[in-house]
Amino acid sequence: MSTRPWTRDRVENVVFGVLRWVVIAVLVLATLLPFYYMIILSVRRLDEVVQRPGLLWPGSFDFSTYVSVLASPDAGGQGFVVFLRNSAVIALLTVVFTLLAAIPGAYAISRLEFFGRREVSTLFLAVYLFPAILLAVPLFVFFSAVGLRGSRVGLLVVYVAQTVPLSIYMLRNYFETVPVSLEEAAAIDGASRWTIMRRISLPLAMPAVVSNALYVFMIAWNEFLFALLFLAEDRPRWTVSLGLAQLAGSIEIPTTVLMAGSVLLTVPIIVLFFLTERLLVEGLTSGAEKG
Amino acid sequence: MSERTIGTAGLRGRQRTVAQRDAQFGQLLLAPTLLVVVVVVVLPILWTFVLAFQDLRVIDLRRKGIFGSFTLDNFAAVFTSPGFWTALRTTLLFSVVGTLGSIGVGLIVSLALRRRFPGRTFVRASMLLPYVAPVVAVTFVWQTMLNPQFGIVNAVGTSVLGWDDPVAFLSQRSAPVSVFGVEIDVPVALLTVMAFEIWRYFPFAFLFLTARIAALPGDLEEAAVVDGATLSQRFRYVVFPQLLPTIALLAVLRFIFTFNEFDDIYLLTGGAAGTQVASVRVYDLLTARGDIGAASAQALVLAGVLVVLLAVYFRFVGRPTEADT
After folding, report:
1. Average confidence score pLDDT of chain A
2. Residue A283 has what pLDDT?
3. In angstroms, what separates the C-alpha of B48 from chain A's closest C-alpha?
4. Which of A89, A101, A167, B222 suits a disulfide with B32, CB 3.0-4.6 Å?
5. Which residue ranges does chain A devote to CATH 1.10.3720.10?
């Protein structure tokens, strides 16, 4: 043992050294346990869950919950296949349209000097900060009035409008890191703005575009409020999020079956997230590091 | 921020045309986005002002059309209803606790993960899961875990921690808890919803604080070590002051988002048991009662309160700089 005296410095190093691991352990448990519980509950038998709710490992595995949640209502299931397809289609279309608008928009804001550039940036930021519910009322009324409520086109337009500003913000940061000299060289060679953007800036910004596409996909896949307002009455059009939320209140459907639905809703997002974590984190926080 | 445009060399006349062409092209590129945002965001918000001054219900929509006569009844109803003031108080409480809690936890975690250790990348990534996972899935898991009949929390609570009865975390408005012999009424459901909010959003603060901490220059802390500053002193006088701008920005962002929060509370409790925040109230007015005018007025008042709070904050704390955003 050392004979060093217990100075404040040493005490603190020991105390915080221990606390650090306590914090890590508690937080890892707090963040991962719910997801572990979700998976385990989706393969436990319902009677076993009710009798021994505290078990963290199933006595027997029962994968019929997945069959039951996926099968169509005619076959006695919950129809999640359709919900998954609906979610995938709307999320992919949101990504396509958002990028089609956001890539040129972000390029314009980061590279081109024009009247109203600053104002537009501010407007986009403001959009992101407005309460969704404030937007929900007039859109609900408008779509009801013109008979478009329940249409997926309406929902798509709302999703694009909600994701484009953030998308432009993320891409703008990236376009600004592309050296201007590269574009100047191309300009001297006689390339037009459009060619420069498409042939030089866009390929260089590809990592940011990909991470942005995934982020938009996640937002659209996870979205709940507008799906609820627009599609709630029309079961064949439900997204997975909406479907799970609507069925969660029902007493007839076993919790384990819905838990299987919950896993199906979460897995695509978690997989995408782990594939692209680094890209995503960089894209989101690139502004923060500048301090 | 590049202010440079291409074509700095060349004749003056040619330069102007390049700049003009750039300007036109820029506006053209931005046009689709601007169109969508104006049509789907700006116009509807402006229209909310019109709706808020009308007596309009969902069932009237097809019959009456969307332009009725002007009335102040909706605002009068908003301000005189006890539900509004309760919801506003709940929203404020929820926002303050949710904001401070998520930033506090995020800060602690980012400090705990500051030094490298095997598996840190994995731990960091798992810290972000609550934030990226679908809200419907995580609220459903929480509901199930907290279920009084077969939830794991109550199972552990009654069998291991020795609770007398299972706690109905999400449907019980308040419960007496004795602390040092004093009975206090604890708002159970509201606290649970706040805990969920902190759990779901501490990753957001964690993400930004981790990025900021990674970018801190090391020499200041090294100098502090040489001067004999302890760990807590180094945090208090060296690290924390450098994180303050980021924390201030996070506080604003988190407060705005928590203040506007709808999904979490609607999905967890439906706004029952003393958890009805303003957004959920707007939703109830719109769908359950079909009262468009009242919902619009309530939503506008909500946004107005937020704007006033932010104005006060910026007045006294100062505006976040461009570099922070």
Report:
1. 84
2. 64
3. 6
4. A101
5. 70-290
On whether any CB of chain B is under 8 Å from the CB of A221, the answer is yes
- Can you give the pLDDT at residue A285? 64
Where exactly are the structural domains of chain B?
82-277
- Tell me which long-range contacts A60-67 makes (C-beta under 8 A, separation of at least 24): A62/A256, A65/A254, A65/A256, A65/A257, A65/A259, A65/A260, A66/A42, A66/A260, A66/A264
pTM of the model: 0.87
**In B, which residues are within 8 Å of A259 by CB distance?**
140-141, 144
Which ipTM score applies to this complex?
0.88
Residue B8, burial from CB neighbour count under 10 angstroms (0-12, 13-18, 19+): exposed
Q: What is the CATH number of domain A70-290?
A: 1.10.3720.10
What number of CA atoms fall less than 13 Å from residue A8's CA on the CB side?
Answer: 7
Residue A280 near residue B204, CB atoms below 8 Å: no
- Whether residues A108 and B228 touch (CB distance < 8 A) is answered with no
CATH topology classification for B82-277 = MetI-like fold (1.10.3720)
Where do we find the tokens 């060399």? B9
The alpha helices in B148-260, defined as continuous H runs, are 152-159, 188-214, 219-226, 231-234, 240-259
Which residue in chain B is spatially nearest to A98 when comparing CA positions?
B33
Looking up tokens 């079909």 gives B290
Mean pLDDT of chain B: 84
Contact B132 A270 (CB under 8 A): yes
Chain B interface includes A26 (CB < 8 A): no
- Secondary structure element (H or E) that encloses residue B179, with its range: strand B175-179
Of A201, A203, A197, A220, residue with least CA distance to A96: A220
With H, G, I as helix, E, B as strand and everything else as coil, classify residue B178. strand
Q: In sequence order, what are the residues at sequence separation of 6 or more whose Cβ sits closer than 8 angstroms to the Cβ of residue B42? A: A123
- In DSSP terms, which residues pair with B175 in a beta bridge? B186
Kindly tell me if the per-residue pLDDT of A242 is higher than 90.
yes
* CB contacts, 8 Å: A231 with chain B: none
Smallest CA–CA distance from B113 into chain A, residue: A24
B20's tokens: 């003009």
A134 touches chain B (CB under 8 A): yes
